[in-house]
Design goal:
Chains A, B: Its EC number is 1.1.1.83. The structure is a homodimer of 357-residue chains. With 357 residues, chain A is an alpha/beta fold. Chain A has twelve helices and twelve strands. The complex binds 3-isopropylmalic acid (IPM) (2 copies).
């Protein structure tokens, strides 16, 4: 029996509240499927750690985390204590880059029992996945300021796309699309306005498309695509996007499926040379942190994605099935959290799902 | 009685179909209010012109258009004939920059009689305006490619923000917010991920905010903001955003109000040294062009914004009121276009509105 070593990083805010619920669900699933998951918790990548050390991470973080099969992550960011760009570039964005987690996979699915803010949408109507480039593009640390404090003050920020970086995420997206029943891939672009990087993106999409003649390919400018997520979410199957566009679409998509609280994401290093990282989409949510009412389902669904990544598709499906069952009971029968129109707490909803497993 | 000289540029696709309807409505309004509007039509900034001249604009376009009080614009872009980044950078994006139309004003309002794709939203629930920076930021022509055709191929695209450019659009947005009843301004940022330009944007927002203590100011990262447009559109009053973020939000907002077909925009040079330009948000829409079913309301509403800009607020309000009246009749009573769930044509709906004026 394989043992999987998993690093757990709760981080900030509701990250610390939903991770325990996620671990309970994983423990229950592991028991049921006879898996050995060996968890070790770390307090870095958090504002607390920053306050104590003046840094987001210990110097040997890379060596430490490299020893694990996966990273189970809550959320990072607590702007009252440390500016967001410092905390994020000092932790999560480092992980993605250093561990070459170049695919950020974000499923958007309208689940049974969840009310969509879109009129008349039912479970099954919305079911797509965003494949986000996760290491380059608009998220670059290259640039700077000049003539500071004067009227000539000018700020530059470089977007950087490489052939290697673009092609590998496109290949992943095409392969994923070609394995799904609809075989439909949509590319997010903005080549009419962003006139250097985005036409390049389009070119690479077209070139890769030739290798996947069985995938139906289309493209939308990001402005129109955002509009279509609201008007016609049923059009989409796999959506591939640059780092920034993927970020936007993978918050907008889950909003259309009712709540950001249930949305998971997998930061994947497809080659397996480095650990992959699993974190909910919602972030640290300072507005509701400390109240015990955060929805743990995003974190729990992440656990399912992690199990799948570790080679246990049945256990993964079972865990996700338990989530679906509990959601389907509805706020009357299950202790759903306020974002799901219930009055349950993080702990109660987590327990209900772990029991269902 | 003042005469206003207006340059008309129908452009491509449905631009050519909705501009005549817009002109009819403007003629009717001018008659009613005793205004003299002197229209002159131009065929440049179109794929037809490109095919004949190999360029989007004549060499003296700037001199020509400079003589007008405003530009009444349809849409440009016909990718079958000329790539979008060529046609747009060769026309519309030039106009914005050369005529220093640094504010792009885009109202989003759920109108009576229009069905929102968001469940349970009624007219009045959604009523905000996006103030988009319109000359710099992510839309820059600086950058390039290196190591072309090799595995090292790398593409750079510079985002450029200047203090002058950022501050002037922020000032406009704060002033606008301070004149509206809610006095609420939301800034779109992404300073957690885009770590050089966006923290700068935030700093300038905070600095400008100190001069407008009566405006309630908040900020959202663009990913969360896109989600909140869907989940809580009633939260917003004035939203200020960089060029790219403003572009995305001003398509997403109108989608939440039912259709892109009714959304107008004003590309404004606030100082009045250069002509301002009024164009619907929808674009050339190759998918429905030639069918005569495009919604002319975005174009007509642009006419109202143009009248307001030219100093005729009553005429502007009257024209917009006529649009609201016709929309409120609903698809049963008025010849609404298919995007409004009716079976009317562009011409029929345009005529109904002109008559109502
Ligand atoms: C056509 C395109 C370049 C343009 C833009 O992105 O500015 C359009 O989407 C708009 O919003 O006016
Ligand atoms: C926190 C932030 C830097 C991050 C991102 O933009 O990538 C988050 O929004 C996400 O989507 O994982």
């Amino acid at each position: 029996m394989t043992t999987h070593r998993i690093a757990v990083i709760p981080g900030d805010g509701i990250g610390k509240e939903v991770v325990p619920a996620g671990l309970d669900a994983l423990h229950a699933t592991a028991r049921r499927f006879g898996l050995t998951l060996d968890f070790e918790s770390f307090d870095f990548a958090s504002a607390d750690y920053w306050q104590r050390h003046g840094d987001m991470l210990p110097p040997d973080w890379e060596q430490t985390l490299r020893g694990y099969d996966a990273i189970y992550f809550g959320a990072v960011g607590w702007p009252e204590v440390v500016p967001d760009h410092v905390s994020l570039w000092g932790s999560l964005l480092q992980f993605r880059r250093v561990f070459d987690q170049y695919v950020n996979l974000r499923p958007c699915r309208l689940m049974p029992g969840v009310r969509s803010p879109l009129a008349g949408r039912l479970p099954g109507d919305i079911d797509f996945v965003v494949v986000r480039e996760n290491t380059e593009g608009e998220y670059s640390s290259v640039g700077g300021r000049i003539f500071e404090g004067t009227d000539r003050e000018t700020v530059l920020q470089e977007t950087i796309m490489t052939r290697v970086g673009v092609d590998r995420v496109l290949r992943f997206a095409f392969e994923l699309a070609s394995r799904r029943p609809k075989r439909h891939l949509t590319s997010a672009t903005k080549s009419n306005g962003i006139s250097i990087s985005m036409p390049y993106w389009d070119e690479r999409v077209a070139a890769m498309g030739e290798r996947f003649p069985d995938v139906r390919l289309d493209k939308f400018h990001i402005d129109a695509l955002a509009a279509q997520f609201v008007l016609h979410p049923e059009w989409f199957d796999v959506v591939v996007a640059s780092n920034l566009f993927g970020d936007i679409l993978s918050d907008l998509g889950p909003a259309c499926t009712g709540t950001l609280g249930i949305a998971p994401s997998a930061n994947i290093n497809p080659g397996g040379e480095h650990p992959s990282l699993f974190e909910p989409v919602h972030g640290s949510a300072p507005d509701i942190a400390g109240k015990g009412i955060a929805n743990p389902i995003g974190q729990i669904w992440c656990g399912s994605m992690m199990l799948e990544h570790l080679g246990h598709p049945e256990a993964a499906a079972h865990l996700l099935g338990a989530v679906e069952d509990v959601l389907a009971y509805g706020p009357g029968q299950a202790p759903l959290t306020p974002d799901l129109h219930g009055t349950g707490t993080t702990a109660e909803l987590g327990r209900a799902i772990a029991e269902r497993v």
